[in-house]
Amino acid sequence: MKKTGLFITLIVIVTLAAVSTVSAADDNWKPFEDPANPGSTMECTVVEPIGPNAKVAETLPAISAEDWSIGPEDAPLTILEYADFQCPYCSTAGLALAEFQKKHPEEVRYVYRHFPLSFHEKAPMAAYAADAAGKQGLFFDAEHLLYEKQFEWSALPSLDAFDNWLKEQFKENLAGLDYDQWLKDYADADLRKNVDGKFDEVVKLGIVNGTPTIFLNLNQYQGNLDEASLLKFLELFKLQSKLYQECPPQLLDPGKQYRAIIDTTKGQIIIDLFADKAPLAVNSFIFLSQEGWFDDTAFHRFVKGFVAQAGDPSGTGMGSPGFQFADETHELKYGEPGMVGMANSGPGKNGSQFFITYNLHDYYLESIKQANETASADKKLTDEMIETQVQAQLDKMSENYTIFGKVSQGMDVAEALTAGEKILSIKIEEQNQ
Questions:
Q1: CA pair distance 127, 106, nearest whole angstrom
Q2: Which candidate, 194, 148, 154, places its Cα nearest to that of 174?
Q3: Element (H, E) at 141
Q4: Integer Cα distance of 385 and 366 in angstroms
Q5: What is the pLDDT of residues 298-321, one digit of tens each?
């Protein structure tokens, strides 16, 4: 089954650790083969890719040739920033965003729009100077200069002093600047009028109320601006190109058993799949494995003694394959190590993320015991009451997260996993009953 894409793809380079291999000949296991003509598709709901916030897209002016922009128009991630050159937070943000774009020049577009705040008296003049440099293709060079030396010029005692500073610094530090032409453009009345009207113009939009205001693909963003944080969102938006636009074909044969052989950077893990108890989860897992969805993806979430979670190629914990399917409950319960379950974003919202559990009984037991130690005398729990609470936690987890497999070999490998270890590939095998 072919995938249809909407955005971009992701390439991750991994270091291959030595892995053991499993022979299928001795135990009658053989490589899984997709049915030649699947009779139907599994029941699921197709989910739209992450797109622009509708209100933001409707309200903000479309990005055009009039904007100061660097990076390709079709970049998977467009960062739009409304900022003020005298704003200290804008300095930190602008330098970080520009540096991120520089490190990912083919995948990130950075767009700057002026929003000079009324109480920053030097902000308009800084914008005049940057726009005049922009006429010569040097806007972002000017931005870097202004932000890098913001502490120096923002402390100047007057606008005249700042004017002299601009003329001196731009002449000395902007390589390739036609200084005489810049002086003319810097003093141009129309250029200045355009900047002066920006504050009132932006305020009327009702979305931008302070600086910096940042949008990622027209979704307002207030998170960290370090490279690791921004990279997660870049990968999330790149993942949208891999989303499926229809439900997977029905691949399971009720007369067969299935298992997954997962090669990781720590070694090999074999999972017996419970197709009879969780056919939706197993069918989806087999389909995605056959498609290579899990290849070169990280265990993006690791909680010691609790779970190791994977299945999101973006590594953000927010990625999905473009479809969701229902929860499946049965008599199996979490507690012992090695149970494999579906992570989800709510009831009936299972996608591609899954987790391998450790000893959940002991994890919950230790957690409740620790809380009990600090409880007041009248609220202390007996051992029996503690065990009852442990079982309640396990029951709740079993109700909320479909169990669809169990580690049959390689639990020592699973226990050696840490956040960031990778799945290299997943092979599916089948066996006649």
A1: 27
A2: 148
A3: helix 139-148
A4: 14
A5: 999 999 999 999 999 999 999 999
